[in-house]
Amino acid sequence: MEVFKTKSALKAFLAPLKASGKRIALVPTMGALHNGHISLIKMAQQNAEVIICSIFVNPTQFTDPKDLEKYPRPIEHDLAMLADAGCNGVFMPDVAEMYPQGADEDWHIDLGNAEFLLEGEFRKGHYQGVTQIVKKLFDAVEPDVAMFGQKDFQQVLMIKNMLAHFSLPINIIICPIIREEDGLAMSSRNIHLSDVDRKNSLVLNQSLKYVADHFDEFDLKELETKAKAFYENIDGVELDYFTIANGATLEPATSKEENSVVALVAAKVGSTRLIDNMIIK
Ligand code: PAF
Asked: 144 falls in which pLDDT band (50, 70, 90)?
């Protein structure tokens, strides 16, 4: 497995592979890898011959500088996991390589109204930062396909809107959420959970599952009320939102007959903010 720190070294590696007709997949990450990321690598291997994983903790998508600072960076462990999984190349640039004019360089594109809902409401400007770096990574790799996890449901929607904005010919593949045995969605942030937080964190999956299991039994308002009730009286858990939304617009679903319905949740568990979702239909 090759490791690249610069766009030029990465491009020099990829050029002959592309010339010989090999399909390239990009798996963008911020490191602190877990089995959820490895499932993206495995999915990439089914869709391309050359797999590039990027590891870059992107400053422009963090709204809280403390969150950026404490973001885990276990790089040796990440590289070992990627080598084990059969990844072909890792792109690990520093901030100056990705933002030569500084991380405050101008970027703003229209991502539609969904940018301002849910995560967008709690993390102002987050999706501008995400789409800014993903565009830079796409420019560096020029992949045929790119893998993203369903866990960041809204992120995938925003990246698809960015792709449409620039008419980029990249196929986006969405990979299912990988959960721990007890149902907690895998996340790089889970390592910050104390033992008590870890037990409390199960409420996210439990409330989503309740909605999925009882979707035919209650109306949408009742389902949402019942799901929110899961969060009452749990010390150390603070619900940011729980919504049953239209999967294309992320506006609250108004009817169960909508083509795509997804339940999405974000909650602070101890000092760690977790998100999760379940596609209902
Ligand atoms: O999902 C992530 O890890 C990040 O938001 C991404 C897509 C790698 C962009 O920094």
From this structure: very high
CB 266 less than 6 A from any atom of ligand 1: no
Range of the domain at 138: 2-175
**Per the structure, how many domains does the chain have?**
2
| Per-residue pLDDT band at 102 (split at 50, 70, 90) | very high
SS3 268: strand
Ligand-binding annotation for 98, yes or no, is no
| Active site members | 37
Which of 115, 146, 175 is at the close of a domain?
Answer: 175
Spatial separation of the C-alpha atoms in residues 65 and 269, rounded to whole Å:
19
List Cβ neighbours of 264 (8 Å cut-off, separation of 6 or more): 118, 153, 154, 241, 242, 243, 245, 250, 275, 276, 277
Q: Indicate if ligand 1 lies below 6 Å from the C-beta of 188.
A: no
Orientation of helix 7-19 relative to helix 126-141, angle to 10°: 50
Task: Tell me, yes or no, whether 28 and 140 share the same domain.
Answer: yes
Check residue 233 and report its DSSP letter.
Answer: T
pLDDT at 218: 98
The angle subtended at Cα 229 by Cα 228 and Cα 231, nearest 5°, is 75
Same structural domain, 105 and 205: no
What per-residue confidence (pLDDT) applies to 133?
98
